[in-house]
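Journal club side-thread
Mid-discussion, someone asked how the predicted structure for our own chain would compare to the paper's figures. Pasting it here so we can look after the session.
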Amino acid sequence: MVNAVMGYNISMSSKKSGMNPLDVLKYLNRSNCRECGLPTCLAFATQLVNGEKKLTDCPHLSKEAVEELTKRIVPRGRDKKLEEMLRPLKEEISGVNFRSVAEGLDAEYADKRLRIKCLGKDFIVDKKGNIESLIHINSWVAGPLLKYIIMGGSEPLSGRWVSFEELKRASSVAQYFDRRCQEPLRQLAESHTDIFFDLINIFGGKSVDRLQADYARIIHPLPKVPFLILYWRPDDQFASKLKLLLDSTADRYLDIEFIIALGRGLVEMFKKILSRHEELMPKLLSL
């Protein structure tokens, strides 16, 4: 699972570097006619940019729209490891009673689907494990999101923040978590401090007062799996320091490898966005 995690990718360039589902939606008639076999035009747009649907699957696209989308869409191929990882999750989720688990997961149930907030953005999941969102869906969110629903945790958050290694069955992979999640986040925070925390705020981060850190933010990759990010700037005597803490109930909502996936995904997401922050930050603010 950990090795299958890919970076977050928001492609909004008018050149042939890709489009997000919202870009594609502008070319559709938004009638939700279902002739493509999907319940909504947004679902079609999502699968189109993921390479799971073809332009010809929509009977209402004009010739001009097809030509323009053909130029602009770069299908995102599915990694075999990702497919292998998602397939059993999609099979297992078909047996989950969405209505009964919705409240415990802090999700909304409607039209036989779940609406769940990930990093402040809406993600909609159906009984086949298909995921729909206005932003690009990558493996780091797809796998943990499906597993989150399957585990169906309902325990209230404790409010007690712990390090990753304090979670059950986490000690054997704690060094990996530090090396691939916590340390890269520290490096990003140190090199792009103000932009880094602005980015966290864009994705639903909330400031926390009365903590002995220069920056303290709570961010929710999943509703019941919050991360607390504490950061201390470097000074004359000490190097910078970052701690990524979790609620002590995190392992009731996700297996350890999926928690690592979320942490690793945050790293890859922030790396990509920060490398293009002048282009992407204004567009993220508009989502």
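Post-session note: The longest helix spans residues 256-275.
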